[in-house]
Design a protein that fits this description.
Elements (H helix, E strand, L loop, with lengths): L1 E3 L4 E2 H9 L5 H7 L10 H16 L1
Antiparallel strand pairs: 1-2
Bound molecules: FE2/S2 (inorganic) cluster (FES).
Length: 58
């Protein structure tokens, strides 16, 4: 599944960045050697970040 259409960033790529310790949207892009273009995916990436943080608390 593509999370970011502009950068062809998959959910797996976002999860990989999360697993590597990324905790901000900008870090997700940086770790995948890209940057936001339209910003349309930012909310979805934030949701994935929030879930990762919740998982850490459990
Ligand atoms: S969909 Fe991610 S920057 Fe456009």
């Amino acid at each position: 599944m593509r999370v970011c259409l502009c950068n062809e960033l998959s959910a797996e790529a976002v999860e990989g960045a999360l697993d590597a310790g990324a905790r901000r949207v900008a870090e997700i892009f940086r770790r995948n050697a890209c940057a936001p273009v339209c910003g349309g995916c930012v909310e979805a990436i934030r949701t994935m970040l929030d879930r990762a943080r919740e998982d850490e608390r459990e």
